[in-house]
């Protein structure tokens, strides 16, 4: 039989209070709206979660370990060794019998002991090795190269995320335009339907407004699908789980700051592409110096200490009575290596490195022209898109004014339904053209920031 646990009255009161608190907290969390994803938050999230950005930071971290690896060549190298050998059959050597007073005979004598144990430690220290010190400088330069690569990857992430973010804003703006048109067309449909019911309009007029309204709903659904696809692309570029919902604010808060940030001048030294290539040129110079280091002699100090045991018994104990003799020995020495001739291999490697440096200098010259071209093109695009945006804005305002004038004339019987539908389509087209021009203008601003090496200013200005 199941037994229930009785609660006292104070316990029941505390239990009810606890349940109420849990219920209120749950309801508050459920009603709390999701936090808006501004451009700045999107960029900050992407720099932390994007896989390419994280890989670039891992390369930068790995460069530090490369420095440690190269530095180890300039530090003492210590190793220990131990061995245990058993010789069941000792090798015999032939000796002339003259040693034992038996001239003309040959004696076979076994040398050595059946057991041989040895333990020791070896130490070496490079006193002079130009290749090691050159490699250490190259490793530090490599770390700087990967640091620049990480920053370049971050700029690429910022450019991609910002472009996708503005595409979503423009798509949502187009949806707002369609919603407004649906509202106006619904009002016209209701008016024509009332006129038809009173015998003042034709059935075909009602059907035409319904068809137009249906097309607007279809267009709205297509735009919604495009927004969902664009949001998924944005989340992918940010490194965010696709299933995680996001809320994009309706107002573009970063527009003014974006325009202000695009006023900086062009300096090629601010472009990470150029700085990265310049750092790569330094690495090639170090590679050339490393090859030249092969011409230099190297000097190293070495020493070892060993402890050895010999005997015909297992070398566990020490002493003649145990049949085992243990003794130690040590040595120290200097080793000087002087390269004399290697078939001109070093000379060939130095010349190959020099050719690589000259090729990279050509790449630097080409990149300089390319970056200057990108800057001039970005400035031209900004100017052109400003003019187009202003024209489309004026055109959209004029089309809207024409539409309402035609609607007023239609209500007074001074315009046909065809004129009204045509003016509505023209207004929709002009508003979409304005949205497209606005997107082109935002993308042009991003490209100008990229050309100026100022993309990271979006992290501060996109608030």
UniProtKB/TrEMBL annotation:
Q: What keywords is this UniProt entry annotated with?
A: Cell outer membrane, Coiled coil, Membrane, Signal, Transmembrane, Transmembrane beta strand, Transport
Q: Where does this polypeptide localize? A: Cell outer membrane
InterPro entries attached here? OMP_efflux, TolC-like
Pfam families the UniProt entry points to:
OEP
**Would I find Signal among this entry's keywords?**
yes
Q: Check the UniProt entry and state the signal peptide residues, or none.
A: 1-30
Which residues fall in a coiled-coil region? Answer: 206-233
Which PANTHER family does the protein's record reference?
OUTER MEMBRANE PROTEIN TOLC
Q: Which family does it belong to?
A: Belongs to the outer membrane factor (OMF) (TC 1.B.17) family.
Question: What's this protein's name?
Answer: TolC family protein
Taxonomic path: Bacteria, Pseudomonadati, Bacteroidota, Chitinophagia, Chitinophagales
């Amino acid at each position: 039989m199941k037994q229930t646990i009785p609660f006292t009255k104070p316990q029941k009161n505390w239990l009810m209070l606890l349940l109420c608190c849990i219920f209120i907290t749950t309801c508050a969390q459920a009603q709390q709206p999701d936090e808006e994803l501004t451009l700045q938050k999107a960029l900050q999230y992407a720099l932390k979660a994007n896989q390419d950005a994280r890989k670039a930071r891992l390369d930068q971290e790995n460069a530090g370990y490369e420095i440690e690896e190269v530095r180890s060549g300039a530090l003492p190298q210590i190793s220990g060794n131990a061995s245990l050998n058993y010789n069941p059959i000792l090798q015999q050597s032939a000796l002339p019998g003259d040693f034992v007073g038996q001239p003309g005979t040959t004696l076979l004598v076994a040398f050595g002991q059946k057991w041989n144990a040895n333990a020791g430690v070896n130490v070496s220290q490079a006193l002079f090795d130009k290749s090691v010190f050159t490699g250490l400088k190259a490793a530090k330069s490599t770390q700087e190269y990967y640091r620049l690569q990480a920053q370049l990857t971050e700029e690429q992430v910022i450019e991609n995320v910002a472009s996708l973010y503005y595409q979503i804003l423009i798509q949502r703006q187009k949806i707002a335009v369609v919603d407004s048109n649906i509202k106006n067309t619904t009002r016209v449909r209701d008016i024509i339907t009332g006129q038809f019911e009173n015998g003042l309009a034709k059935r075909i007029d009602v059907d035409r407004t319904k068809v137009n309204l249906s097309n607007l709903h279809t267009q709205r659904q297509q735009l919604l699908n495009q927004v969902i696809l664009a949001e998924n692309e944005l989340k992918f570029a940010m490194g965010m789980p696709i299933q995680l919902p996001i809320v994009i604010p309706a107002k573009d808060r970063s527009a003014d700051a974006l325009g202000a940030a695009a006023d900086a001048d062009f300096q090629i030294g601010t472009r990470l592409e150029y700085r990265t290539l310049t750092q790569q040129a330094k690495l090639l110079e170090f590679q050339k110096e490393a090859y030249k280091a092969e011409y230099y002699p190297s000097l190293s100090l070495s020493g070892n200490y060993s402890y050895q045991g010999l005997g015909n018994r297992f070398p566990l104990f020490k002493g003649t009575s145990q049949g085992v003799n243990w003794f130690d020995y040590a040595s120290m020495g200097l080793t000087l290596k002087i390269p004399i001739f290697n078939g001109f291999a070093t000379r060939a490697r130095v010349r190959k490195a020099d050719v690589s440096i000259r090729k990279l200098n050509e790449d630097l010259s080409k990149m300089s022209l390319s970056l200057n071209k990108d800057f001039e093109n970005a400035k031209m695009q900004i100017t052109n898109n400003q003019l187009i945006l202003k024209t489309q804005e004026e055109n959209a305002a004029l089309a809207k004014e024409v539409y309402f004038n035609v609607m007023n004339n239609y209500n007074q019987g001074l315009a046909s339904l065809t004129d009204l539908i045509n003016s509505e389509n023209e207004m929709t087209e002009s508003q979409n053209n304005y949205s497209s021009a606005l997107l082109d203008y935002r993308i042009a601003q991003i490209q100008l920031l990229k050309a100026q090496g100022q993309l990271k200013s979006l992290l501060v200005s996109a608030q």
